[in-house]
Amino acid sequence: MKRQKSYCFDAGFGVGRSGVIHGVDWRNVKNFFISHGHIDHTGGLPEALFCCWKLRFSGETARQVSIYTPSVRQAQAALTMLHENHAAFENFLDVKIIPITEKLVFQDEIIRVEALANTHIVNAPTQTAARSYAFRITGPFGSIVYTGDLGSLDEGGIGEACDLRLMEDGHFRPEELLARLRSEAPQPKGTKAEQVVFLHHSREVMKDPDAALRRIPREQRKNIHFSCDGATFVFHPKSGWQLDKDSIVGHKTEEVKP
């Protein structure tokens, strides 16, 4: 099988199993980027690392994996859990933990990842580095902003122009986020229409995503998506990022009328 590169941004509960179900090849994931240390964003990290250890290419004897995180102790705890249960874990998987600061985090021949500090987790008086971040990812596909969890409507991830925006709606209503977004992040000239994907949903949105879409003014609904498990967006050089509608079979939010 051809070896490719995949990147994991946050690792919530069940990410390992869900990834396998939806076609993620964990053998190709060598870099994890954690926005903040809350358990709903990191609870699946041991499982994901276990998948990286358990699933191997034929003849592969060692692999290096990096975790970029503002919560080093939490990543170390995930490794401790795996070492305690599988003595051979570290014989194959060499895991590096790299603390995040607000700057360029990672760059290879495909992507560049920058961290944008936010206030979702408030620092203690003695702390200097932020504990919560959004990410800006750029590459041949244009630019992606993943907001992580937000502390306010006036911080990293909101005012960043991009082609694909992955935005949580668990702490602010979608219509509030869009109103702020439309006023703060004009689309760069010459780029394709920005796609906005809401994820990490609130209970309200999970209960009735159709109602959540109806609360958004009709003129703002174009290129707005409420993600479901397994939803896939594909980059096309001519048309930009587009939803693969085959990946959301049974998800009817896209068809809501006023």
Structural overview:
The protein is an alpha/beta fold and 258 residues long. It folds into two domains: 99 residues, Ribonuclease Z/Hydroxyacylglutathione hydrolase-like (Metallo-beta-lactamase, Chain A), CATH 3.60.15; 157 residues, no CATH class. It is 24% helix and 26% strand. The strands form three sheets. The protein has a seven-stranded mixed beta sheet with strand order 5-6-7-8-9-10-11, with no helix packed on it. A hairpin with a 2-residue loop joins β7 and β8. α3 crosses α4.
Highlighted features:
single chain, 258 residues, alpha/beta, Metallo-beta-lactamase, Chain A, 7-stranded mixed beta sheet, 4-stranded parallel beta sheet, 8 helices, 13 strands
- Please, how many domains? 2
How many helices in DSSP terms? 8
Anisotropy-based shape? globular
Indicate the proportion of strand residues.
Answer: 25-35%
Q: Give the number of DSSP strands.
A: 13
Mean pLDDT, to the nearest integer, reads 87
Structural class: alpha/beta
What is the H-and-E element order? EHEHHEHHEEEEEEHEHHEEE
Q: Give the N-to-C terminal Cα separation.
A: 47 Å
Unreliable stretches (pLDDT < 50, length at least 5) are 252-258
Q: What assembly state would you assign to the polypeptide chains in this entry?
A: single chain
Task: Provide the gyration radius in Å.
Answer: 19 Å
With strands numbered from the N-terminus, the spatial order across the biggest sheet is 5-6-7-8-9-10-11
Helix content class: 10-25%
Main sheet overview: 7 strands, mixed
